[in-house]
Amino acid sequence: MQTYIVNSPFDMHIHFRDDNMLKVVAPLSSSTFVGGIIMPNLVPPVSTKQEVIDYKNRIMDAIKGDDFTPFMTLFFKPYTKEFLSDVKDVITAIKLYPAGITTNSEGGVESIDTVALAPTLNAMAELNIPLCVHGETNGFVMDRESEFMSVYEELAIAFPKLTIIMEHITTKDAVDLVQKYDNLYATITLQHLLITLDDVAGGMLAPHLFCKPIAKRPEDRDALVAIALSGNEKIMFGSDSAPHPKHAKEACGCAAGVFTAPIALQVLTQLFETHNSLDNLQKFVSDNACKIYNMKAKEKSVTLVKKDFSIPEYYEGHGEKVVPMYFGQTISWSIEN
Ligand code: DOR
Ligand code: ZN
Q1: What is the model's pTM?
Q2: Which residues are known to be catalytic?
Q3: Which atom of ligand 1 is nearest to the CA of 39?
Q4: Which residues contact residue 326 at a Cβ distance below 8 angstroms, ignoring those fewer than 6 apart?
């Protein structure tokens, strides 16, 4: 049977949530991945050292002994250099959300003013703390990411020593921009490599494919696929796996977020195989992240086997029910137990 081994797979953008949902979803990442960047958009968002430590402890409890390292983040707001120096040993990055742009981003940055934010961003650059950015404006939904490109450029030029991660890029414009500045890098999700707006809203509305940024045009998706398959060193896998309770997705006023943690590596393997690019999957899911974040790979590998995997209708536990992308469908790669 055909197999493919991935060494030390990382998911560089995950939402684990808290409480019961954390207990359901964290093991679904930690059973496959060896580590990942954990998003801070809890209610209230993670913004003190103690909150980081406490949240990490709750994650460690939830993953029950799996060899998984949660790379913790803070929610961006103006911080002093003194504070950042103190918190540096417990965080890997800081995540900036423009206010109101997605789930639990209400306390985000109102305007990205490079002068006003300079003290914090310069301190982050000096301390080697990367800035992860949800890059969308409040404009027309299909143009939000493209409109944000000038903000990324301004940040890249004003803070050349700051590592800036363009999170979950969805457009050809972003694919072009990330290659233009040395200090820009990007994550790409699973869904944005696979779907376009047509899959979300072209037929019957598909709430489990609705996320921010919204999936775009075929040419955008193709540009994302091309750069991911190429193994380009600036590009990492970050699922943005974003669980919401089933009832909150299948609702009038559907929450934004696609839950992909339990299927991500299997579907990526299928995608890279289909495009004859399996040789570059290792770079996309591990090697590039290690270089960009200056971290070591773990001595742990995952074996994928070419064997049908029937994706469940939902995952449940602790009173929560959450629906994965491609629920009820069968894909051709599984993880070997
Ligand atoms: O669709 C999204 N959901 N995009 C984000 O950036 C946040 C996420 C969430 O937290 O649910
Ligand atoms: Zn996210």
Answers
A1: 0.98
A2: 240
A3: 10
A4: 263, 267, 311
